[in-house]
């Protein structure tokens, strides 16, 4: 047994096979004797005949050469362990440095996002705009920012321009013959992706409210290409909008479309109010874009037809439980659900509270935040599923979220919440 360190638990054990030996004795040591007139005597007949004994559970003795070899091996093993310990220590040091860098980058991104949200919230509503309209506009802008942040967080290289365009137009693409999207597979870096997410969201919102997507005769075309210098040139063109008149007052949306790309990316942008529709042109500098390989292009597969929607009134009066560990988010969602006629039975910040609420007053529906502080909500989901209570998952991980196979058919809602997505998910559930 060779000690490898000062710790009493670290040893190196050597074993040898059993060496069976036979010993010759001068007589059987177990032979009985008798006591007579002359004292204790063995019987004379064959008293000292050779008696053989087999010895087991022993090995050959360890020689000095064996012990020297064992010590040399111990030294070699200790050297290897010390080297490995130094390598691990170096790796831990590098990991700590990387963690600090990641924390600083995360802090920078969070402050950047909060600064943008603060600037969005600080914009005053347009003259005559209702509170509901202002709230919807603000929610849409934050949702576009959340999508861009989610895409950038998933991949530091940003994302595909086509994917961004399709995501912004998806809610309004019922009649695909009115929308044309054409261009090579261009990838934007994270900064350009965030800027264009807000710009395209403003253009899409205006097209739905006042432009091509608000008119039966309207058409929308989005094209892009790389010029000889590697810059990406994007053209947003609306047609079929009769008697279009440029606004007298420049609002936040128009300013964002005109100034975001030049200010944040050093590119170019232009917005023309033509008689039959708006035309916007953007130039993204080459350092923010690249031609994506064919493998990175989004697969163009036919999407399955959406399920038949459940009537909106089917949710009226339904009792829903919220499992959410952030009180402000939970209160906001509670208010939205209440406005749409649902009854919130309670808010649970953790699994234990949720189980108690289910035991005391089982809900009819539920919204489950996947990550609850130091746990997940899959146990609550299993309990609801066993009771036959429909529910939806909510997560900020976007497309990276993969539920356990048991919950593969459960609808998933992205965070930050958009009430239309939550209602759609609950109807689907």
Q: Tags for this entry?
A:
five-stranded parallel sheet, 429 residues, 9 helices, elongated, 21 strands, single chain
Radius of gyration: 38 Å
Which residues form runs of ≥5 with pLDDT under 50? 295-310
* Average pLDDT score: 81
Describe the sheet with the most strands: 5 strands, mixed
N/C terminus separation? 64 Å
- The tally of strands reads 21
> Main sheet: which strands, in order across?
8-10-11-13-12
Question: If helices are DSSP runs of H or I spanning 4 or more residues, what is the number of helices?
Answer: 9
Label the overall shape: elongated
H/E element order: EEEEEEHHEHEEHEEHEEEEHEHEEEHEEH
Fraction of helical residues: 25-40%
Structure overview:
It contains nine helices and 21 strands. It is of the alpha/beta class. The protein has a five-stranded mixed beta sheet, covered by helices on one side. Strands 16-15-17-20-21 form a five-stranded parallel beta sheet, with helices on both faces. Strands 7-9-14 form a three-stranded antiparallel beta sheet. Helix 2 (131-154) runs antiparallel to helix 4, helix 4 (190-209) packs antiparallel against helix 5 and helix 7 packs parallel to helix 8 (378-387). It is elongated, with a radius of gyration of 38 Å. The relative contact order is 0.06. Residues 295-310 have low confidence and may be disordered.
């Amino acid at each position: 047994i060779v000690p490898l360190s000062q710790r009493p638990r670290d040893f190196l054990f050597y074993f040898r096979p059993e060496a069976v030996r036979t010993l010759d004795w001068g007589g059987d040591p177990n032979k009985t004797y008798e006591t007579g007139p002359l004292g204790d005597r063995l019987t004379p007949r064959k008293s000292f005949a050779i008696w053989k004994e087999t010895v087991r559970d022993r090995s050959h003795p360890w020689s000095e050469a064996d012990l020297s070899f064992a010590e040399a091996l111990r030294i070699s093993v200790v050297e290897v362990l010390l080297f490995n310990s130094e390598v691990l220590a170096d790796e831990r040091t590098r990991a700590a440095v990387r963690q600090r860098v990641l924390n600083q980058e995360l802090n920078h991104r969070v402050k950047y996002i909060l600064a943008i949200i603060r600037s969005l919230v600080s914009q005053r509503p347009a003259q005559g705009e209702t509170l509901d309209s202002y709230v919807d506009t603000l929610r849409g802008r934050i949702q576009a920012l959340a999508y861009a942040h989610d895409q950038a967080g998933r991949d530091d290289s940003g994302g595909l321009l086509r994917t961004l365009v399709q995501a912004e137009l998806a809610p309004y693409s019922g009649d695909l013959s009115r929308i044309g999207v054409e261009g090579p597979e261009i990838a934007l870096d994270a900064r350009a992706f965030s800027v264009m997410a807000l710009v395209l969201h403003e253009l899409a919102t205006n097209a739905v409210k006042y432009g091509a997507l608000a008119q039966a005769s309207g058409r929308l075309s989005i094209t892009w290409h790389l010029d000889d210098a590697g810059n990406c040139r994007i053209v947003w063109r609306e047609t079929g909008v009769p008697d279009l008149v440029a606004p007298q007052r420049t609002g936040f949306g128009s300013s964002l479309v005109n100034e975001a790309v030049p200010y944040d990316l050093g590119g170019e942008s232009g917005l023309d109010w033509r008689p039959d529709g708006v035309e916007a042109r953007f130039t993204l500098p080459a350092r923010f874009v690249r031609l994506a390989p064919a493998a990175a292009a989004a697969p163009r597969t036919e999407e399955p037809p959406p399920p038949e929607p459940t009537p909106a009134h089917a949710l009226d009066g339904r009792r829903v439980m919220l499992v959410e560990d952030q009180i402000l988010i939970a209160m906001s969602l509670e208010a939205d659900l209440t406005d749409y006629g649902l009854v919130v039975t309670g808010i649970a910040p953790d699994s234990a509270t949720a189980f108690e609420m289910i035991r005391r007053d089982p809900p009819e529906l539920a919204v489950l935040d996947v990550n609850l502080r130091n746990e997940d909500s899959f146990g609550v989901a299993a309990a609801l599923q066993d009771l036959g209570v429909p529910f939806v998952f909510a997560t900020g991980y976007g497309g990276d979220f993969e539920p356990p196979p048991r919950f593969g058919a459960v609808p998933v809602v992205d965070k930050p919440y958009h009430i239309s997505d939550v209602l759609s998910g609950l109807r689907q559930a």
